[in-house]
Write a structure and sequence with these properties.
By secondary structure, the chain is α+β, with helices and mostly antiparallel strands. It has 2 domains: 88 residues, Potassium Channel Kv1.1, Chain A (2-Layer Sandwich), CATH 3.30.710.10; 307 residues, 6 Propeller (Neuraminidase), CATH 2.120.10.80. It has 10 helices and 30 strands. The longest helix is centred in the C-terminal third of the chain and has 17 residues.
Amino acid sequence: MESNSCSSFSQQPRQRQPPENLRVSIDGRSFAVDKTILSEKCEYFRALFQSGMRECQQEEIQLQCVGVLGFQVMLQVLGGKHPMLSSDQIVEAIECAAFLQVPALTEHLINIVNSENCLLIYHTAATYGVGELSYSSALFIRDMYPELKEEVHTLPKKMVDYIESLLPSSYMAVCSHSPSTEQLKDLQRTVCYLDEDNSEWKVLTHLPVSTSTTMAGVAVLDNKLYIIGGVHDITKKVVENGFCYNPAANTWSTICGSQQLRYNLTLIGHEGCLYAIGGEFNMKALSSVERYTVSNGSWGFVPPLPCPAALVASAIAVNRIFICLWKGKGATDILEYASERNQWLLVTTLIREHSYGLYMVPHKDNLYVMRNGPCDDFLMCVMDCYNLSSGQWTAMSGQYGNSKGSLLTAVARGDSVFTLSREVTTEYTVEDYKWRVKREMKGFGRIGSIYTFLMRLNKVCVSNMENSVDQDQKVRGFPRFSPQCSDSL
C-alpha cells in the first residue's frame, strides 16, 4: 500500500497476527490506542486493517493528515467521554472527522454546537466537507439568526444564502383536550404556533376528533409531532392509538399505541425513537419504559425506571436523555438513559428543602431544574443548574414565575428559553447562570395543561392552513381536514 497525502507508515517486519494494541504517532507525539476500537469506529483505520497489505501488521503508524488536538478529542469521544472543546480543538476535531471518517466524532461535534462556536463549526465543516455537521450548525444559526446576523454576514455569500434558505424553529403549544365528535367539533382543539413578528399565537392545525391530549405524552421527533396515550374522559379510559402530525404535508396519521396502556406519561423523541416513560394505568403508577422505533413501527420494552413514576420531568442535553425522579425527603435524582448500554444511570442528586423537580430545561451542557418555591407556592419556581461537564450544582439567583405565569412548561432555542401562561408569553435570555427577560408577548389564552415544543414550519403550509381555517369558519363554523395520504385522518 503506497503512502498518500493523509499518512505514511513506518516499515516494520511482517507479523503473523496483527497486534491488538497500536501506537499512532502525530507530530512527534505518540498515542497508545486500541486497534479493535479504531477498526470498529473509524472508517479510515477499518479500511487499512482490512487491506491485507503489510502496513496493517505494523505496531506503529505515523499520521500526517490530522493534528494532535483533534486526535486527542477523537480518542476521548471513542472512550465514551463528552468533552466541551476550545476553538483550536474544534477545528482539528473537524479535520480529524473529515480525514479519518469517524461518525461518533461528527455526532459529538453536532451535539456541542452552541452560540459561541456555531459559526466556526459551520465554516470549518463546510470547508472540510463534513456535510451533516455543516447542516446541523447551519440550522442552529438559522434559529439564532437575529442575534447572529452581523457575524453571519462575515461568511461567504453562498454560505449566508444557505442559512437563510433553511426553516427556523417555531415555538408551539397545544392544550389538554379530550376527544370530540364529527358532529360536535371543538374549535379550541388546535395546535398553535407563536408568530414572533406579530407577537401573537396562531392556529397551525386542528387535532383529529379521536385524538386526546389530556394526560397524554407529547413529543417531537424528526420534525413530526407525536401524541401517545391520553384519556377519553374522567373514567381515564386510555386512547389506544397514537397520532402523528407532519407539518411538511399538513397531515395527521395514526400509529400503534404503546403495548402498556398509560396516561400521565413522559414522551421523549430521540435518534429515530420515541420513549414512553412511566405514567399511570388504572390509578397505579408505572415503572415500565417502552421504545417505539419509527423505521419499523414497533414498540419494545427497555429497562424500567428504578421506581414507579408519572409526569417525569425530562430533557435532552448534548443529545443525551435525562429525567428527574423524586425520592422524597428533599431529594431528586437525575438519571440518564444510556442508549448504547441500554440502562438508566444515576447522574447526580439534588438535595434541597423544596426540591420536587417540576420541569427541566437544557442549555449547552447545563440542566436547569425548576422546583417548587417557598411556602409551597407553585407559581414561584426556584431554579438550580447542573453542569454535566463539571458535575457541579449552582443555585440560580432570583425566582422565576409570578402571578402572570410560571415555568411549569419551557422550551430552549439557541440562547433563549420560551415560557407561557394564559396571560403572557415570555422569552428569556440565558446568560451566566441567570435568566434575563428579553421580551413579553401575547399569552396563550387557553385553559388546561399546556404542552410546548419546537417545530420547523413550511411557510406555504402555514399560509394555506390559515386561509382554510378562516374560510371554513366563515362558511361552516368549523375547520376543514384535507387528508393527503392513505393513513391520514
